[in-house]
Amino acid sequence: MAISARNFWKKKKTVPFGDCLCGRAASSGQLLVSESCFTDSQHERIFSDMKPHGHYIVPLKSFDNLVGVLFLYMDIHPSWYQHSQEVLLSIGGLIANTIERKQIDEELDAHRNRLEGIVASRTQDLVKSKEQYRKLSNQIQQVREEEKSRIAREVHGQLGQELTVLKIDTVQLGKKLPADQIDLKSKIESMTQIIDETIKSVQHIATELRPRILDAFGICETVSWQAKECQKRNSLQFDLNFPQNPVEIDKGLQTSLFRIFQEAVTNILRHASANLVQVGMTYIKENLIFVIEGNGVGIKKKI
Ligand SMILES: Nc1ncnc2c1ncn2[C@@H]1O[C@H](COP(=O)(O)OP(=O)(O)O)[C@@H](O)[C@H]1O
Ligand SMILES: [Mg+2]
To answer: Which residue has its alpha carbon closest to ligand 1 atom 5?
Structure first.
């Protein structure tokens, strides 16, 4: 039988909960049969345009959980239909199950979304703090390099100059000594030698602090120079392979690559018992690949 859903809701909305057939079925949890709208005393509301009808009001119960009621409009005296109540009750159970499952699914979805949100925001925090950590350690590295540069300049410039003046004065003093002062003359000579060695040490320290070649020529030249220096002092050969075109990277990155090279060579000398180091720098697409490989014992796995 036909009644527009919109009309039904308009009328139903004005009825307080529990004060109608639906409400009673909902609060009792039992199936309600209303035989005729005109004779049933529970069918309180009668409208002017009402056609004769009866009702089944089926509780939608999943086990003991009532999730709603199914309100069916019927011809009058619906209880004439045999077995209809049992069938409707089990249909009500199925509908209730489906609704309940949907509600659980929605709850699970909401939980999952909340969890995914938490995980996403934690991941973002982690990425952010990793990024901050990286920035901070870059800054520290940069400050250290600047400080080393400053000290290197000062050691090389100031100390170097003063030592040179000292050497000139000492030589002059030696020249002014009478020829018979042999002891003093040889003393002056050994002093000049010590000053020469000290000048060399100062240059060496300044270069160790920060090779000026790095700022003047770049990473490839500096690695070549450092390899030669290392070859002079140790029984370690180097095989260097650099790209044909100049490697254009910023100053900070050049310094990092150089420090990595220094540490790798120190490790090879300390731990590897190697006699050959292969150094390669190549571009693969826009990525610069830097390889330092010694023919030593390799790094042992810790058990
Ligand atoms: N080239 C290498 N050959 C063999 N073992 C190495 C090499 N480089 C590093 N190792 C091993 O890895 C360890 C960690 O290296 P590192 O962090 O540079 O510390 P350190 O050189 O001060 O011991 C070293 O102690 C050494 O056991
Ligand atoms: Mg080391």
So the answer is: 299
Tell me which of 260, 293, 299, 303 to substitute to probe ligand 1's pocket, judged by most ligand atoms within 8 Å of the beta carbon. Answer: 299
33 CB contacts (<8 Å, ≥6 apart)?
Answer: 54, 55, 56, 57, 78, 79, 85
pTM of the model: 0.58
Per-residue pLDDT tens over the stretch 197-254: 999 999 889 888 888 888 888 999 999 999 999 999 888 999 999 998 888 898 888 9
Q: What confidence tens digit (pLDDT) does each residue in 101-119 have?
A: 999 999 999 999 999 999 9
Fold entry, domain 5-81: Beta-Lactamase (3.30.450)
Q: How far apart are CA 113 and CA 180, in angstroms?
A: 99
Determine the topology of domain 214-303 in CATH. Answer: Heat Shock Protein 90 (3.30.565)
- Of 270, 275, 293, 295, the residue with max ligand 1 atoms within 8 A of its CB, to mutate for a pocket test, comes to 270
Mean pLDDT to the nearest integer, 49-74: 91
**Separation of CA 136 and ligand 1 centre (Å):** 25
Tell me if domain 5-81 and domain 214-303 are identical in fold. Answer: no
Pick from 248, 258, 246, 270: which is nearest to 210 by CA? 258
